[in-house]
Specification:
Blueprint (H helix, E strand, L loop, with lengths): L6 H4 L7 H5 L2 H10 L2 E4 L6 E4 L2 H8 L4 E2 L12 H8 L9 H13 L5 H18 L4 E3 H6 L1 H11 L6 H13 L7 H27 L5 H12 L4 H32 L1 H9 L4 H11 L6 E5 L3 E3 L2 E3 L4 E4 L1 H4 L34 H18 L4 E2 L19 E3 L3
Parallel strand pairs: 2-8
Antiparallel strand pairs: 1-2, 3-5, 4-10, 5-8, 6-7, 9-10
Helix pairs in contact: 5-11, 5-13, 6-12, 7-9, 7-17, 9-13, 10-11, 10-13, 11-13, 13-15, 13-17, 15-17
The structure holds protoporphyrin IX containing FE.
Protoporphyrin IX containing FE binds next to helix 13 and helix 17.
Length: 405
Amino acid sequence: MPSVSKVGERLGLNPLSPPFLENPYPFYHELRATSPVHWLSSVQPEGWFITGYKEAAAILKDARFEKRMRIPQISQAYEPLVQIQKNMMLFQNPPDHTRLRTLTNKALSPFITGSLQLYIEETAQELLAQVKEAGTMDLISDFAFPLPVLVIAKLLGVPAEDRAQFREWASVMVRTIDLSRTATTLSAGGEMAHKLIDYFHCLFTQRRKHPQDDVISALLAVREQEDKMNEEELVATCILLLVAGHETTVNLVGNGMLALLRHPDQLHKLREAPALISTAVEEFLRYESPTQMTVRFAAEDVEIGNVLIRKDEQMYIVLGAANRDPSVFPKPDQLDITRNPNPHLAFGAGIHFCLGALLARMEARIAINTLLHQLPYLHLESVTPQWRDLVGFRGLQSLPISFME
Ligand code: HEM
């Protein structure tokens, strides 16, 4: 039994309370100051909250901490979700993880090219052209959401007309692995998983008959040539790419723009020197990390930072907290678009390091520079934008802005 300290309870740490959703960082600072490896019984399932950078990075790179299935196998309704997770690289350990990751990388990376960059630039401009006349927009639904959806749809070879469904699919799927999940969200996920499985099976049948220049055709070719990925793993990989490929990128663009609009000096600096976009995007990733948290389980007893973690205990690795650790990032609560070095953990670390990091960076740089270039007078329409009620994923419900002089 771990030594239970009550700091989480004393802080009233309810990750779904409005103050926490609005600004979780003071809570993280206090937890870290008490202990960077801290047992919390106020979350379900109970587990260790890792808020220190050194400890988070060490756990992510240590094979003694492993991935496990996160869907409780207690209801028939969750079965399709269990099937998908079982076959997703994100929830697997070597050697299956290594095999799936290598094959997916082989199919995906040839598509991350200069011509994709051109497509992203044109799409960003087209989306802004559609709202320019109005003088106001919801930055999330008019821009930050459709852009990555169109990009991942094009990459995978999924018809763009289906994109309205993707938002629903992705947000239902994300809730099934978030700390906020309930029996209702899990059942909704199970139903959605059915639809997704059918959708991709249909697409595979079409692509087998008529291969195209897209990632799905490339994955089918890799699978059929090397016979190293079964049909269920192929479906799970496509679902992972579809969900991971835009849910987080929407939030990077939205969170980054909110941070800039709240820091006019930094906005001005970036407008004056657009080449700062690379360090700026790294800073947005650190400052408001779209993936705030990931999970590992101890495969054996391990000591981390003088704390004994027992076999099978669950670890919440709070990337958003590690990225504000003052022992690594001077003035961590300050947004500094020139921060360098910036060794944030927003894409994770170790063998599960984000497979789409290159693409996400490319999209965010283009999206934000296009916005600043096309819309010279940007203002926040609301001083209290609404955050989504998720704990592990940080993003805005909407971000109304105006851009008339
Ligand atoms: C700002 C955008 C993004 C962020 C913040 C992000 C974050 C992450 C993080 C933290 C992980 C590791 C999770 C863990 O260790 O448990 C991860 C894994 C992954 N991401 Fe991303 N991601 C982003 C965009 C993308 C995109 C655009 C794609 C695909 C096109 C993608 C595909 C993946 C995949 C396939 C994995 C699993 C890798 C593995 O298990 O080996 N991500 N991502």
